[in-house]
Amino acid sequence: DDPQDQTVSQLGAASRVWLHHSLLSLQGALEQRGAQLLLAQGNSLQVLSNLSEQCHATHLYWNRCYDPATIARDKKIKQQLDHLQPESFSALLNAEPWDSLKDDDTPYRVYTPFWRKRAQYLPGPKPLAAPKSIQSLTPASVKKMNTVSVEDLSLLPERDWHIDMMSHWQVGEKAAMSNLKRFLKAPVHDYNDARNLPSIVGTSKLSAHLHFGEISPRQIMHVLCKGAGSIKNLSGGEEVFAKEVIWREFAYSLLFHFPHTIKKPLDKRFDNFPWETRVKKNLTAWQRGMTGVPIVDAGMRELYATGWMHNRVRMIVASYLIKNLLIPWQHGEKWFRDTLVDADLASNVMGWQWAAGSGADAAPYFRIFNPVLQGEKFDKSGDYVRKWVPEVANVPNKFVHKPWELSAIERAALDYPEPLVDLKESRQRALNAFDQIKAPH
Fold it and tell me: What's this model's pTM, rounded to 2 decimal places?
């Protein structure tokens, strides 16, 4: 459990809850194989040095992360613990960021050619099976170590809000593989369309499992390809799903090659974007799902209740925060990192920069989602909105995504807030703001 100065991948409250349950699941799996999970807290170098001495270790292995602080930390560990022949491996990704470069050895900033390059080598090396048994340390050796329990990590919050959140999830490797097989059995074939419909379970729901290493992209690819050595025979939905898995790897490539994007825009023009400076009131309304725009509020309430939000809706709520409220994307990224169980640093940052138009794969125009049109297209009958915004449960379909067009009497009966901003006027305001920084890319 690393201090802040060792990694920027600090877990938010929702992710810490998931980690608690994930560690308990891992602990159980190890015990079934005759081993035990040993946990320690503190400075990584110091902890590893002490543990290696206490258990007389001769080798040190770990799986890589790709943010700059962690890379610097790992480099120092390798230098200081050279006598342990330290070696790191890739478990987080299907292939390394430095293995997917353009012909001129520069990193990709557009996804489609990145995918074409990566697709040639999929599904990648076959994952190793878990060992049937693992030799454990002697009780006497363990007793000497400064280890802690899962409970000692204090990952769970003092208030019990997490109990309802976790009722929506099964945690651990078995749950991850079960989710994958369920998804590939049927839903994947409608994935191209169904993944955009928030009222149904049309996605794999694997993002949190991937975030915590309960399943790897390599495992996903090999199950997806059914033992084949390439992706040539994938169906349309299966190929779209494969592209989504590799989209995550594109995010890690950007994080590795452009580490400043964790906090600053990839497109330097956005350094001068005229953001709103007084944001607290509107930011709080957005966080609580009280913007007065049903599809936005539904997404934010789903997030708060479950620790997850449908990807189409993530794009809608991000566009609303950035474009309609002119609130800097970093505020949204920070909130998502604290409230998502799948708050993966690379994917989260890339998604918010994509929504802002300041990142890779940006549109040649200033993309502004109209939340009403998005709702009417992807939640036609309003099922998703009605589930998470019960205030509009009885509003007719015609107005469920724009209740402000109801009569004054009908609006007053809803007990639902008026919109924070006028969508048409705020859209024009965003376009005017972009005009101030627009110049050749």
Answer: 0.94
